[in-house]
Design goal:
- The chain is mostly helical.
- The protein has a single domain, classed as Arc Repressor Mutant, subunit A (Orthogonal Bundle).
- It contains three helices and four strands.
- The strands form two sheets. Strands 1-4 form a two-stranded antiparallel ribbon. The protein has a two-stranded antiparallel ribbon with strand order 2-3.
- Strand 2 and strand 3 form a beta hairpin.
- The chain is elongated and about 45 Å long.
C-alpha cells in the first residue's frame, strides 16, 4: 500500500509541475489578468486550477501580483497576475 501511495503522490506532483510550467507561460502571454479571467480564456485550465497553481508560482518567484482591480468575470475586486520575465521555469 505504501508503494502505491508513493507512486500516486509522485504522479500528482508531476502533473502539478507540468501545470505550473504551462500556467507560467500562459501568464507571460496574458499578463495583468485575474485567475478567473485566465481560466475563461484558457482552453486547458479553469479558474480553480489557476487559483491553485498561481500562488505556488508566486512562492517560487515566477509570478507576482500586480494591482487589484475589478474582475470582468466575477465583478469583484481581486488580484491580477504578472510574470517575472527574468526567471525561467
Amino acid at each position: 500500500m505504501v508503494d502505491t501511495s508513493n507512486k500516486a503522490y509522485a504522479e500528482v506532483q508531476d502533473i502539478a509541475e507540468a501545470q505550473r510550467i504551462d500556467m507560467h507561460l500562459f501568464v507571460k502571454e496574458h499578463e495583468g489578468l485575474t485567475s478567473s479571467e485566465l481560466g475563461k480564456i484558457s482552453t486547458t485550465y479553469d479558474r480553480y486550477q489557476f487559483a491553485r497553481r498561481l500562488p505556488e508560482l508566486r512562492k517560487e518567484g515566477l509570478v507576482y501580483n500586480s494591482t487589484d482591480r475589478k474582475c470582468t468575470v466575477t465583478k469583484r475586486t481581486v488580484m491580477t497576475w504578472i510574470s517575472n520575465r527574468g526567471e525561467q521555469v
